[in-house]
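Holo prediction. Input below; ligand is iron/sulfur cluster.
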Amino acid sequence: MSETLIQLRERALVCTACDLSVRRTKVVFGEGDPLSPLVLVGEGPGDQEDKSGRPFVGRAGQMLDRALVDAGISRERVYICNTVKCRSCDWNGDRPTNRPPTPEETNTCRQWLIPQLAALAPKVILCIGAPSAKNLIKPNLKITVERGLFFPCEYARTAIATLHPAYIMRRSTQTDDGGYSLLVADIKKGWDAAVRLTAGSA
Ligand code: URA
Ligand code: SF4
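Structure of the complex:
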């Protein structure tokens, strides 16, 4: 991990810049190989991530891990983080209900995400789900139509979006994989491009 990323993480772990800081347990900064040519950016931490401080460790994370393996990569070979670093949910007394981060929360948390991506300097960013893709590729991206395509990106040589495991889980039935095979294919496409771009710049 470069010095910059370590310092950035230390500052992010105590961030109180938006209201999500009030009820979070842990800031989920991100983890993995900081030298990886591929960085995965999800939406935001859920319950398990909030408790552990690690990205994609709950049910969606388990599907993501399986998809990485099915794409021929292990989780350790990429870097994984999220658009917002604290769990976003509404509270009914002590009962949390997950909700997508608001545009304000997303915007405020870019103060961590953008320098993080600058420090990682990946060849390819893989946006996991629409909120990440809208944040990093273009605001009007249509995930079901435009997933699996390469786009120019300010923060990497190129970026590609894929379906979120939580969306796939909601959609899958006994006869329909809900888009799981597309997730695997998009991961593989992103990884292959990242490897190719690395070889090209060697
Ligand atoms: N969903 C996400 O988008 N990110 C996580 O870290 C976990 C679930
Ligand atoms: Fe800070 Fe981001 Fe957490 Fe808001 S979500 S408190 S901006 S780290």
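The chain has a mean pLDDT of 96. That is the main takeaway for now.
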